[in-house]
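Structure ticket #2291
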Amino acid sequence: MITLNSGLFAVYFALLEFLGIKDVPSAETQIAIPYIPLPPILFILSLIAFVSALIPWFTKLPLNFPEEIADLRDKAILVKYSGAITGLGFLVAALFITIFIFLEILRT
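Resolution: structure written out below.
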């Protein structure tokens, strides 16, 4: 997901140029203009969430208390899961906004 996300960041601007956002300043595209900066910001937030889900935790593990090891493991899994879900949420929101912008540009 990290490589997909960082690739989408670059492709977004290339597609905007390809669709000719600078050449189509009509009244119909004025609806999409305020939303243009949102997808890159959401891509960056998604990238941060995915990377934070992969960062390892440095904690002291007590080897003589198996319950505490299980609790630390459950906490680490919960943090990784919530980071992945948050990143996916940002990514899906960015993709929906991107599709909306591109459709508004193509409509003109």
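Closing remark: The helical segments are 2-19, 38-54, 66-107.
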